[in-house]
Amino acid sequence: MYRKYFLPKIKESEVTSKDLFENRREWLKMMGALGVGSTIAPATLWAAASRKLGPLEKSLYSTTEEATAFKDVTRYNNFYEFGTGKEDPVKFADSLKTDGWKISVGGEVAKPTVFDMDQLLKKFPLEERIYRLRCVEAWSMVIPWVGFPLHKLIQAVEPTGSAKYVEFVTLHDPEQMPGQRSPILEWPYREGLRLDEALHPLTILSVGIFGEVLPNQNGAPIRLVVPWKYGFKSAKSIVQINLTETQPKTAWNLANSREYGFYSNVNPAVNHPRWSQRKERRIGEFRKRETLPFNGYGEWVASLYSGMDLEKFF
Description:
Blueprint: H1 2-5, H2 18-33, H3 42-47, E1 57-58, H4 70-73, H5 88-92, E2 102-107, E3 113-116, H6 117-123, E4 127-135, E5 139-149, H7 150-156, E6 165-170, E7 190-194, H8 195-199, E8 204-209, E9 212-213, E10 223-225, E11 238-244, H9 251-255, E12 279-282, E13 289-290, H10 298-301
């Protein structure tokens, strides 16, 4: 049924399953008990998806909707660094090496810092947030993200009074990310938020889904999640976060400003120039459903845009 509507024709053997995650963890436990592999660095274990993330706090912001199936969340993706097809990320993202990953935070801050993944986990407690993800192509998912509020990271580096925006930069490495050999976008991939959007408690940095570390095709090892905006705003595989005084340039806005505005809030009243945004198809469902303003999060975020013309600032 799924293939008829949106899902790509990918063999189950190509998809990393939860069972594989579980078996890998058990194997590592056994090796540890035998004294084997004790020289493996923690960052390497992180990159290998070798452990369950937890304990996790449940978030008051989570939707009560049923989550999209794990196999669909991990095999139907937009991640142009690995190709433009929805099936390309799961096919080609194995080339991404996340061991030793670092993320630098700087710009208009008093304490510029470079974090590695283990430092982030120790400093910022993780929680599970079940968020809707709405993509500009009129499909959507419900995903149990694991992460922490972005505002905690920003507060830790102490923004200066000049900081008004936050820029996110993805890894640029065409050897690992073969899609970057194509000029379809200006690489590296860049996204941005206004500072108040970045500080909003709904905005998170995600390091996992379904209680496990992020698969490569979903933006490993760390990605942005902004649930009231279209999915392309949520930059993946982030290596740099900059607080800036001026509005940062963003990948899709540079590529086609007529179709992709800086704000990109989910708004059924503002159509993409080539199709309507009034309805969406939830992956795994047959019927389309009405698109909700701000992706259903208007109660919490509509006040951020009070007095703005949301057709002009789309």
